[in-house]
Amino acid sequence: MEGAPLDEAFTPRQEEVLEAALGLLVEGGERAITTAGLARAANCSKESLYKWFGDRDGVLAAMIAYQASKVRVAVGGSGPQRPADTYRADLEGFGVDLLTVLSGPASLALNRLAIGQASREGSRLGDLLVARGRRAVSSRAKALLEAGRRAGHLRFEDTLDAFETLYGLILRDMHVRLMLGEHVPATNSDRAMATHVARAVDQFFRLYGADAQS
């Protein structure tokens, strides 16, 4: 699985199976993710699972990639004629998707499982989360940031630094707090998340916006 692309396209049927797998993980933990259990839950054959995903690590990798695919960016990024307020909305859309996915029960379950396995010899889940999750999201987000720079909305020298700043402003310490079971008001509702993300994007533009550095 290591040679597969960061942004994988899944068929609608494969997405149904991966949703079933995520549901099993949330409800039953690591032991619930077996080919037999997933085949029953998703009403598909074991042969189909092996064909689509390979072994159990392949299923986990696909689950992570599928979760990461839910964090979207505006198609085509930002062209020279794209207004600044529209581009800002693109960044806010990315931020809301990011916060929605990472605060959801499936992503929290995957991250808790990776932490629990971190000291286990041969465990690859942490590496899979980085390669198929964070890295895929980072790749799409950096493309959006670079599009904003080309359009003259942003100024920065290092795309990775700009991405990590935006990522940090959106998430802060919320992901850790959520994994520990703490209630985080910013994730209470769609409106609360949108308000939090809009504030984070405002702060990002104060640092990297073209007007802020003119």
Automatic annotation (TrEMBL):
Residues 11-71 form the HTH tetR-type domain. Keywords: DNA-binding. InterPro entries: Homeodomain-like_sf (IPR009057), HTH-type_TetR-like_transc_reg (IPR050109), HTH_TetR (IPR001647), TetR_C_Proteobacteria (IPR039536). It holds the Pfam family TetR_C_7. Residues 34-53 bind DNA. Coiled coil: none annotated. This is TetR/AcrR family transcriptional regulator. GO terms for molecular function: DNA-binding transcription factor activity; transcription cis-regulatory region binding. The keyword DNA-binding applies.
